[in-house]
Write a structure and sequence with these properties.
58% of the residues lie in helices and 7% in strands. The chain is built from eight helices and two strands.
């Protein structure tokens, strides 16, 4: 009896011993992550700019927010509306939310997974069944299932998956920033094009009025016998030719307003105007010796780097697939 009790105690302690050994193995191999770690490729930079005596420290437009670059309140309100209601920004924001959710799903694999299931059944026995209880007996059956599992991340597979998901999330965020900058640029460009067309239309109307006055003068001189019919016909042709430009410019203005309305996420309609084109305070000074580090601010480059980080992490995930998975 004493030997049987010892055997039972040994058998009962066996799962605990296995759990301790697995825990020790997980702790020992916790830092073991297969696959290469990402390192940014080194870029050799010159000590100073070629052709300059010293390091130039010049201000850049990249240091200014967009609302300080443009000094037109109407344009600023249009950009704010585009950033708030533009379709491209909505799509990019939704992609960021999707990537963030995927990052959360990938990170959840580091924790135990718990599942449960319940079932309730009621059965009434018939007296015609052989060996069944008495007729009319009701039996209730309640079953519950609870399970839990946890993958011991010995080779860093889960960590690499989380790293890749995080990099994809950051890449989507950089993509959203790129869409935002492109939208601001497109709205500003379309707005300035619209103001240019307004100036062209105003010039065409003034020129048409001037040619009309010239034709009217030659026509009165022709009736008085002073001017020739050829001069009058040339003045009339110039007036008609300039007047034909007005409908074309009006059509181009309507098309440009439709383009702006699409960028703003609104139905086509008239676009408000602000400061005239020649009254815009433009910043055209580009200082010499801008540092190449400004390229690191470009969202497209930062997005590509995060995608490279994700691809590098997926290499570790693929290498971890060669080893057994312990749960």
């Amino acid at each position: 009896m004493r030997g049987a009790s010892a055997t039972r105690r040994s058998a009962a302690a066996l799962p605990a011993v296995v759990a301790v050994l697995l825990g020790a193995a997980a702790a020992a191999l916790g830092g073991c992550t297969v696959g290469p770690g990402y390192r940014r490729p080194p870029v050799t930079q010159p000590a100073q700019f070629y052709g300059l005596a010293g390091q130039a420290e010049a201000a850049s437009l990249a240091d200014l927010p967009w609302w300080e670059v443009f000094q037109d309140p109407t344009l600023e309100s249009l950009i704010e509306e585009a950033l708030r209601s533009g379709y491209d920004v909505r799509i990019a924001t939704a992609r960021v939310e999707e990537a963030r959710a995927r990052y959360g799903i990938a990170g959840a694999a580091r924790y135990p997974q718990v599942g449960y299931e319940g079932q309730l059944a009621r059965e009434r026995f018939s007296g015609f069944q052989p060996g069944a209880p008495a007729n009319g007996v009701v039996s209730d059956v309640i079953s519950a299932n609870v399970n839990a599992s946890w993958e011991i991340d010995l080779w860093g597979r889960v960590r690499r998956l989380t790293e890749a998901a995080k990099a994809q999330y950051l890449a989507s965020e950089e993509g959203r920033r790129g869409v935002t900058l492109s939208l601001v640029s497109e709205v500003a460009t379309a707005y300035f094009d619209l103001r240019q067309l307004d100036e062209d239309l105003e010039i065409a109307r003034r020129t048409t009025a001037a040619f009309h006055d010239t034709f009217d003068l030659f026509n009165r001189q022709l009736q008085g016998g002073v001017a020739s019919a050829l001069d009058t016909s040339d003045a009339e042709a110039s007036w008609a030719n300039e007047a034909a430009q007005i409908p074309t410019l009006e059509s181009q203005i309507a098309a440009k307003e439709n383009q702006l309305a699409l960028l703003l996420g609104r139905t086509p309609g008239a676009i408000p105007r602000g400061t005239p084109l020649f009254g815009q305070p433009l910043r055209t000074e580009i200082p010499a010796g801008l540092p190449a580090a400004l390229l690191l601010r470009r969202p497209d480059l930062r997005q590509s780097e995060q995608q490279l980080v994700a691809a590098n992490a997926n290499v570790g995930v693929a290498e971890a697939a060669f080893f057994p998975t312990i749960s």
